[in-house]
Each structure stands twice: as structure tokens, then as C-alpha cells.
Amino acid sequence: MQDSKLAELDSEFYELAQNAKAWPFVEAKKLVNRIKRTGQKKVIFQTGYGPSGLPHIGTFGEVARTTMVRTAFHLLTKGEIESKLICFSDDLDGLRKVPDNVPNKEMMRAYLNMPLSRIPDPFSNEYPSFAAANNARLRGFLDSFGFDYEFASATEYYSSGRFDEALMKMLKNYDKIMDIILPTLGEERRATYSPFLPICKKSGKVLQVPMIARDEIKGTITYVDPQTKEEVETSVKGGAVKCQWKADWALRWFALGVDYEMAGKDLIDSVRLSSRIVKAMGGTPPEGFNYELFLDEKGQKISKSKGNGLTMQEWLKYATPESLALFMFQKPKTAKKLYFDIIPKTVDEYYQFVDAYHRQDRAAQLENPAFHIHSGNPGKHDVPISFTLLLNLVSAANAEDKKVLWGFISKYVTGATPKTHPELDRLVGFAISYFHDFIKPSKIYRSPNEEERQALLALMKGLEEFGDSHDGKKIQELIYKIGNEFEFEPLRDWFKALYQILLGQNQGPRFGSFIALYGVSETIKLIRKALNNELTKSN
Q1: Nearest residue to 356 via CA among 368, 344, 338
Q2: What CATH architecture applies to the domain 387-538?
Q3: pLDDT over 90 percentage in the chain
Q4: What backbone phi and psi angles, to 5 degrees, belong to 67?
């Protein structure tokens, strides 16, 4: 991806944006209406991150989507309203349970209920804390995408006093906030609930204890220490407390003046409650929308603590970051399965959108995902071979060496080299990684039946007449002709047989295009191996 700061655009874009219908524009119009009411000259966007687990794709998705809305807002306001995106890490939260996907679990169990920013780094001791390690991973990833954002740490904001004024406001409206929250809790939880969580000076733990007194003038709360049973008075300022989740969210909105924040569908009730708390404090809750959650291949919600979904690092091992951004752009209010099988299709769709963008008029460009992925400046890519086709080339050649694959590619695309086609070379590397981890282990060749054997012999004979041709269209016509002559019904059974017998898989790209890339002579050799049952020996 390119820098997410909005590119310089001509004035026609600003005018056409007023009628654009892509979802980022629909969201941005909420903010346009907001500033018309308030007259403000700056808009704050926020995304939140809980560093109790490794950063995951959902975290990236929230930043990417919010950036898309910010880009649309910039266009709708013709760049006249300043904006900022804050990525806020709730790293003062107490560790409730040890995540499944981290090392040194025994060490971490000793720090249960301690603030995440005060737990040692379980990974390598490279960072001062568990939270710092996860924060660094998040920032490194976001920086690699060129996102324009300001990172914020709860530990820093509470401790430095940046939240003090808002905390005092919350203390003064304590009863109103309790009236909002308590009806949503069970009887046992109501007995101990307080919007303020004291951080014990002795143990350092974040305590969930009821308040027995408060002083709005002094800015203090009093609670009973669960260990010593002594009454303890502590300030709500300077990092002596942190707020419970819903109250904490409201505190951020109020203190930072947040105008826009989106959240997952599972947080709809939290958004409502936090919005009511902000109003009770005299503030205005932000605009936003609730996106659908990602699901794993079993249809279960992806959880960063369970580690049951794709991580950002895993996606980037097998595909381009732009394809990940496209996945985030598409249908944000529809639940989508997020697993490895969707990667090839998404990669190819990205390049199709970019290719189309440079042939479209301005109005159509504003609806194109490529515009939103690149904040108005998608570059041009010369990618003459689809990712799906590359995967099948790797599979057929059974090669995991870039040089071997470029030998095929340079014959298919005259004069093509890694230097002349760097984007294609990048895809070749991804294709090798994807093949090695997902296709190779599941390849199962089968022998042809008698009808398929005769059809393959006919295909081989027909291909011999093509010589060194790379005309995928004519080769595809030959394949169709043979399938009809041998009366495959439905015809797709013929193509399925080709994939299963020659590639050891159930599906693939247009087979004519594959032969043109792999080479006619190489395909003939492949058919001979299949007819001699040499391929099935590799199962």
C-alpha cells in the first residue's frame, strides 16, 4: 500500500464526491452533518486496541476502514476541515486471563490483574512490558502501510494527567453513570461495580472493588482493600485509577473530543451505554457504525486470545497488503469468513480493480475500491498473469525456485524479467509460499478412467499441432471441442478431471491460459505422466 495521506486530487473529484455512494462516503456524510451543527474546524477519528493479545487482522481492518472514511471526509469538505486519527491502546487494563497464543504462560499467570503495561515481555524481553511488545508490533505493521495516525497509550494518558479533567467530570456525575450501568448488570456484579478501578499501591493490581465513599472536591474515592480489609482513599487523577471498559470508552470520547469511531457488531450495546455516559458528562458521543465480525473457516468468531483466525503476518506471508485492504473494504456490514482459501481470489480482484481504475471516469473512480485503498492515488501495475494462474504454474512445475518459474513466465510474456515486472515478481514469491504451505500438502492425483484417458490422448494430439503457441484462447477452444466430442455432461466435469488428474486439485484457472503459460510441450509431458500413472505415485 502507499501512504494513506490523501493524494493531491483535481477539483473535479471534490465536486463528484458530493454524490458518491461508496460506503466510506456514506459514513463521512454523517461527519459533514455533524460539523454543520457544531461549527467545529477539526475532526477526531479514533480506533481502539486492547493489547492483551497479539495484533490481528480485525485491528488492522478498523484502522484501514477508518482511514477510508477519513479520506472521503477530506473530499466532501474539500480539505478545509483538519482531521486526525488516534490509535488508542488500552494498555493500562488488567490482565484477566493468559492468552493462548503467547509463550511463558506460567510467568504471565503470576501477573494476573496487573496492568498490561507492567507485565514483563513474554516474547523476548526486548520491550519493557507485554503491552509495549504488542504495541510495537501494531505500530510497526501500521507504519508499513503508511497510515497517517497518532498512537496513544492509556498508561501514558492516565499517568500524565491528560485524563484528569475528564476523570473529575466523571466523578461529579458518578450517580448518573451508575444509574446508566447498574440496570445492565447481574445482581452479583452490581454489588461490586464502580466506573473507577483503583490501582493498588501495594500489589500494583487493577482492583474491581465497590466504592464506599467519594469526595468530588478533593477528587478522591475510598474503597476497602480486599487483602488487608483496610479503607483506602485514593485520587482519581494521575494514573491512580483506570476506568471500567464502557466508562473508559466514554472517558476517551469525552477527553479527546472523538467525532468518529466504528466498532464491531458485538459491541452495539457497549456503544449505546458509552454514548449515554458521555451525554451524562455533558459531551457528545461520536458518529460511527457497527461492522460485522470476521469468522474462521468453521464459522466461529475470530478471537485474538484464541488465535483462531489469520494474523496480519500470516496474510502478508502469502499475499500483498493491498489485497488485505481490499478484503476490509468489501461489504463491511456482512459477516465474512477469513481464512486462507480466500486469499488468491482477493489478490486477483485487487489487480482487476486497479486495472479498471485507470480506464474509468472520475465518478466511477470514486466508487472503485482501489481509490479508497490508496487514498486517491492507486498506482499502475503491469501484472499480465493472475495470482491463481501463478499458483497452478507452481503446482504443475512442482517448483519452489523463482528462477525456474521465471523461465516459464519469460516465454509467455516476451522479454519479461523480475526487473521489468517487479510486481509480478512479488506475486511469484507469494505463490511459492502459498503453494508450499497449502496446495502441496493437499495435492492428490487420481488416475483417468477410460473415457478420460481417450479424451486426454485426443488433447495431447491436438496440442502437438500447436507447437510452441502461447495462444490461450485457441487452446481453450481445443479443450472445449474435445470435451464436447467426448460428451462430458456437464462439461465442467471435463475440466474438473483435468485439474484432478494433471494438477492433483479440484479446481483451477482457465485451463487454456494455464497451458499457454506452462507451455504446450510441458503440458504434453504432464499428460504422458498422467497416462502412465506416474503422477499418482507422488500421493
Answers
A1: 368
A2: Orthogonal Bundle (1.10)
A3: 78
A4: -60, -35
